[in-house]
Amino acid sequence: MNPTFSWKDNCNIIFRVLTGWLCTSLDPRERHTIWSLGIGGIFTYCSLYGVNQAQVQRLLTIKDLRRAQASLWLQLPILVLLSTSTSFAGLVLYTHYKSCDPLKTNRITNPDQLLPLYVVETMGMYPGLSGLFVSGIFSGSLSTVSSALNSLAAVTLQDYVLVSIYESHL
Length: 170
What we know:
mainly alpha, transmembrane, Sodium:Solute_Symporter_SSF, Na/Glc_symporter_sf
């Protein structure tokens, strides 16, 4: 079942989502407002860049504070581009499957399978492209896991192993 593609419908949906995001209501019962997204975003990014062990470990390897701050400012355009592209990917998925939900029709069993289904449906006719997409997802996941394990090993060594060795020599 292939949904029909209509630029007019898709642009209308994207416009409604973007104008809904610009809601300035101060009512705390309103789900998404510019205030809730802004304040929530500040807390989210403070936790990602301020106390995340992997990020802090990367920043501590930089020679001085000024260069560490510059590296964070250089990450900002990349972060904006990434956030924008993932948001538009969600909008594309929504507009593509708005009339036929693959979860309700049992074509997929988990919402996490929606993006791979879209890739297979739209790019499956090109040999190897779906596999390249899946390998990109796996490489990103493995990179994140490897970074987290490296940080965990460094903290364990520094805070537990070396402390216990130092205390045993006292």
